[in-house]
Amino acid sequence: MNKRRFGIIGEKIAQDYLRRNGYEILKTNFYTRKGEIDIIATINNTIVFVEVKTRTNLKYGTPAMAVRDTKLKHIKSTAKIFLKLNNLYKYEIRFDVIEILIKDGKCFINHIKKII
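Above: the chain's sequence. Below: its structure in token form.
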């Protein structure tokens, strides 16, 4: 399976996880010239910008370790554009990472809240 298709599977798992936990999905794969956000959701008057990282092993560290400063900068810039385009200024903002590890037919999810 190619890397992009594997990532899409992880994003679908993350969306299902968020819905099961009371989040409403506002947008997926929001692209701008500044960057891309995998999932934009809302819960309890908070807009949550979610980066999803899916892996099959921890050989190179945890999935969240792949979200470095440059990626965080792009996520913040893209989030500002989304908020402005949709006039969403009355909400709290949060930036999360959802790590998904798929190994031996099992799926492990780790939701890391407020990464920034």
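The first strand starts at residue 24 and ends at 32.
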